[in-house]
Task: structure prediction
Amino acid sequence: MADDDDHEGKTFKITDEVLKDYANAKLPRFQEGLRGNLEYAQLGSGEQLAPGKPDLYLPAKNLQTLFGTFSTDLHARFESAVALMSKFSQDLLDVDLLLDEAEKDADSIAVPTLSEDLKNILTAKAP
Result:
């Protein structure tokens, strides 16, 4: 498969391989990269913004407090995104399974049966 950048502004065909690649490789690799990043791991852990003693100067103390709140919130939002990616990976695998099952079902439908089903759908009366 070509790089994702090759698909900008173009039609992108979703295949079994694409679904499995995102579910099993790309999304987990992103999650692992994020969790393995030292700066990310320390985000929200009370890191000091500037050297010295911010408690001695009220604006510095306020800035440190606001930065602490920001970094904690940012870390929480990243963690939510990582959790959603895990669910999305599973959803992609579920879609792949459903498409496989639909393909198998489609192969087993005979033309007369399909024709009869379409006729019943088109002539069905609303309740």
Summary: The CA atoms of residues 44 and 73 lie 7 Å apart. The helical segments are 16-35, 38-42, 58-108, 111-123. The chain has one domain: 14-104.
